[in-house]
Amino acid sequence: MVGQLFAADKISTIEKQVDKEIYRTTLGESNDEVIIGDEVDSSTFKNKIKFTKWNKEESLTIDFNDVVAGNPFEDVDGKTKVKDKDNAVRFYYDRNSDEVMRLGIIWNEKPQQNFWIAKLVGYENFNFFYQPPLTQQDIDEGCHRPDNVIGSYVITHKTKRNNNYKCGIFAHWYRPKFLDSAGNWTWGILEYKDGIMTETCPPEFLGDPKTVYPVRSNADLGYTEDGGSEVTIGADLIYVFPIGIAGADAGLVTKIAIMTSNWGNPGRTCRFGLYSKTTVPNLIRDWTNEGTCSGAVTPTFNVWDATQSYSLVNGVGYYVAYWGDTGTVDLTYHSETYPGRSYHVHTYDGSTNWESPYIVDGTDAATKRYSVYVTYTAAGGVYIPFQIIKNEKTDYNRGIYLNGYYRNPDTRFAMLRRDKIAKLAN
Questions:
Q1: Structure confidence by residue, pLDDT tens digits, 349-370
Q2: How far apart are alpha carbons 101 and 51 in whole angstroms?
Q3: Quick one: which of 83, 312, 386, 413 could link to 250 by a disulfide (CB 3.0–4.6 Å)?
Q4: What are the residue ranges spanned by the domains of the chain?
């Protein structure tokens, strides 16, 4: 029997709860609970799955009951499968790894329609950012995006970021595959709109005489802070990244973290800093002594403790800064409309000789959000993070208050008084 779970309790398989038609497992480094079935009405099985995160503070439920309703059973392969009223296996759940839940429909014969639809419950609290194919400019700038990330969705919380929320990523819904019983496969198409996720199989695959039924879909949901894409950056450059935090909400900053990988190259010597977001950014803290970024092939957070905590100023936005020596390093990111990184050419000498004020030599397009976060002790305040502000009587209609600034649709920044922000928000 599965009892009450705490953050440290790990379930490495899918386990049925005694006397109830629900199943449980855990995912992610914090062992966040995942529930298959309906907790509210557990007397009969409902084909839905609830993902929780941040010690159950947030959740997202995916309802497949209109796709396949039926009876569950535990198969010998460790998967939980669902039979329909005709006793045919039509759906499955598979804890593919500690980080990934795999699920999907099973077509035992050519279906009448080549797609299936899932209803999302709790979607209002999240953003669903589509990850498109890279442009030639992206490729020329050193970006790379795995095939299963192309066409996927990064799901982020609308307001929660930094501290234990890290980059605010709730989950990553990867591009699905459709596979037949002979091992043939093709990529599927994932499309999100207004709380509905649609997964489509190319009709030519379903109608191909070489396709051997049953055909199943592999839809992977990953619990990771990795944005899924990476860009290689060079040496002797200071990079700065805007962070989703403003002084009124910040208090004392104690840690800075950035996710990197080196694809087998040695760890890169570097320093971290913190810049204030003024007209011309100024260095306000040389964060640490020299450190070494992770040399791991897989993306890994590098966390630097403050040699001295820093108290952020009310209403001022901030940048995390990275300054590295010779060699390259990969930074992880996901596609999102957001102020990108900028850089300044500055020879690395291992000292505290940062460039201040910071002169911008080049910038990203505002389409990348990097895996960067800070840890801080909140001091309270009225900061309104990532909130859409609508007021037809002002010039600020449909802008976004971001990092202590009001972001207009034409991408210009203008400081607003906090009392004015409060009046505009509705």
A1: 767 778 777 777 877 767 888 8
A2: 10
A3: 312
A4: 15-222, 229-377, 387-424
